[in-house]
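Allow me, if you will, to draw on your knowledge of protein folds for a short while. Thank you for your consideration; the sequence and its tokens are set out here:
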Amino acid sequence: MFSSLGGKSVLVTGASSGIGLGIARQFAIQGARVLITARNADKIEAVAAGMRAEGLQVQGLATDVADAACVAAMMRALEEMYGGLDVLCCNAGIFPSSALENLLEADWDQVMGTNAKGTFLCVQAALPLLRRAEYGRVILTSSITGPITGSPGWVHYGASKAAQLGFMRTAAIELAKDGITVNAVLPGNIVTEGFLDVDTEYQTGVAASIPLKRLGTPEDVASAALFFASREAGYITGQSLIIDGGQVLPESLQALA
């Protein structure tokens, strides 16, 4: 189904681990040429080198998506590497926890800067390249937290993820004339390095609240991103797809009994 992704140029931000890495790997497996970015230069290059050792076409670059100059440099480097850009995956995001009453202005600004402003900066900087593509695709990694659910400690994170969807809807309208689609994936609880840091009892409790009775994987999210990036999804724009095993569906735990 995703044969249209072979040879495409793909940029995945925040791809040194977790969901971003899962998305990048699946694009590369489909034959795409992938640039992965993150703030830690040593880590992102090590991850890219590991995938190249598997025979995948992947390069790594250190980038801070909250910095306009860094984003511009990233786009120049991408053009030099691959000659253009077909698919932009805005996945970079941070999620430090803080109760509302203790939340510092600097913490709010940091989360919004990476998650919301970073999305804006990357999409804006990518437009000249995406407009030259056969068909451009933008895929945002939002979350169920913020747009649909809330979770104590993540008021700033939830606000940033809801902001991404507001951005998406208007961007989809503005860019439709260029044949560029803009869509979002909304992951639920996905097994990543960060999630594995929490205690096993919490993980078990979360899984029990999910109708499919399991936590998600980065590959689950990547499959949705691959679809949005494909030629076959060319008539879909401004839409969000929840990947959560049905977590947001039950009104109560009794519904799962």
